[in-house]
Amino acid sequence: MSNKNSNSIPVAAVKGVGEKLAEKLARLGILSVQDLLLHLPYRYEDRTRISAIGDVRPGQRVSIIGSIEHTDIAYGRRRSLVTRVSDETGCINIRLFYFSRTQQNNLRRGNWISCFGEVRHGRGAFEMVHPEYRVSQQQPVADSAGALTPVYPATAGVSQLILRRITGNAIDSHASALTELIPDEYLRALKLPTLRDAIVDLHRPKADERLRDLEAGSTPAQQRLSIEELLAHHMSFLTLREKRRLLEAPALIDKEAFVGGLVQRLGFELTGAQRRVVGEVLADISRPVPMLRLVQGDVGSGKTVVAAAAVACAAASGFQSALLAPTELLAEQHARTFSSWLTPLGISTVYLSSRMSASSRRCTLSRLSDGQARVAVGTHALFQQDVGFDRLALVVVDEQHRFGVDQRLAMRDKGQRHGMMPHQLVMTATPIPRTLAMTFYTELDVSSIDELPPGRTPVDTVVVPEDRREEVVQRIRLACGDGRQAYWVCPLIDESEALRAQAISGTAKLLHQSLPDARIGLVHGRMKPAEKDKVMTAFREGRLDVLVATTVIEVGVDVPNASLMIIENAERLGLSQLHQLRGRVGRGHQKSACVLLYKPPLGKHARFRLAALRDTTDGFEIARQDLELRGPGEVLGTQQTGAQKMRVADLARDCDLLPKVLALGKNMMRNHPERVPVLIRRWMSSAQEYGHV
Ligand code: ADP
Ligand code: MG
Prior knowledge:
Helices cover 39% and strands 18% of the residues. It contains 24 helices and 21 strands. The strands form 4 sheets. Strands 11-12-10-13-14-9-15 form a 7-stranded parallel beta sheet, with helices on both faces. A 6-stranded parallel beta sheet has the order 16-21-20-17-19-18, sandwiched between helices. Strands 2-3-4-6-5 form a 5-stranded mixed beta barrel.
């Protein structure tokens, strides 16, 4: 690129940026002129409308103009400077906690002041704390007629005024240095502005720009920049994928026919979907290139067997595997399942729990590091420093949404030896929509288990207000009378573990009174793991009829004899979480039911969620609706996409731009590959570039 590229011009070249300010900007990651120009306002304010002081209310952000009545120092818990300002309609206080002598003098009676800030309740009157203000001797007129004022992400020591000034200066002298990376014909076809025009427009909105459009992210300038930013992320993922293709991994071949042995002993036939996905995974790991495959399948679709097949294949090649679960409860269950499936094949499994005694931990670790144990099952405890493997070739991550990309990478690094990478298999019950997967999960290959094992009867779901609790208790009585079991989940959100434990014990007590013959157990987050285990084991072995629990049982718990799921305060849970909880039943052959108890009145969204859950049992459909309600950003979490916070784009809002981004990406790769690294560098700080993590 030419040296006019604004990426290479240091921010200190901008008028008004001295050494001190440049240092402060550097702390924000603003090093170059380009960084400064891309430090975009996160919202805009209409300050051209002057409010009558008598009309303002706490919580509003308003512009006012008034005359100064008096200014005094107030001594409260903190010393502050209080200025009384009034117009014909009323008066308000301006409070400054930090002020200079000059400021104090300036704010004297008889001067005029125009300020902008948030109104709040003060002592005896409404007030504005540290508003932006300007003092004058004459009555001021409202300034910058028609234009919106940009508000930049807040930063210590760099005020809005400074940011407004220096971005203005950068636009005046350096905007032409912003290299256009998107092909002209593309911009013309879509009627999108150039990079330069888009950036100028966002820093200095045109007089006729509407606040509403800016807030919706729908102005041409924003759309153009969103496309470019999404493209940068997409390209970064593509690059990561290319890089992975150059790495080596052990080729895992099922020399001992362990997979066949495993399948034979299962006691059930694999579904067609399971067979297909097992085939895809085994084909991947037989190649000397690290696999990164996402297996998505609804709750109960049988993902665990797929993982076990891959693990068995690794063992047949003489390699080790690690299986990561999001909770201790689930890790323990997997450890039990895996050892029952794999021990008969001569594959030894260890369970690394965070609460083992020091000596048994030592023993387990040495069995892992000398390679005797072929499979390690655990939670994030497996990430710990002292956990070393002899020949780790496969990492399986279950219920991926609980793990961040960072953790997955940490695990991958454990297997790195002589330049070899382990294969990675990620399993999730939250499917990713197709275009999103193609743009943001480009690094992953995706397999779907789109079929449930036979003989499952869909779970009947009913929505019941909590004052009809007695009916629910009656249902439990019937189920238990039939020798079946029930869960009662109390998801008390936002409350401390202590309160939660208390509420749960309360529920258990009430149940006890209504069902004196039922054997009732309790699990919650405050219990010691050993106690929790005891209760879970008793429930699994049928020695308890009802398990009262917090959402700790949300993920993966498998007790086929349980056929009734009661969820209290269901209105407070998200769709996917409810679906996960419901998935704990309907695992055996008997008819199962799920009761969603709610506290009326229901809000609009809650009503929609409960109805959606009642009307469908298809996890993919539920995921789609969840996405609609909350947007992909929240459903997947930036953690899961691994995406840094974006500057302009918003995955939830800009979902429909993704097909454009994909097409543009293809075009760039084919016609302008040299622009790709420049684009990635423009939008992603190097630390966050996926290729580098
Ligand atoms: P999930 O996909 O939710 O992790 P699991 O792997 O826990 O599902 O499987 C749920 C239950 O279904 C387990 O009890 C498992 O043994 C059983 N299962 C898995 N595959 C089949 C199959 N093909 N036929 C019958 N039962 C199966
Ligand atoms: Mg599972």
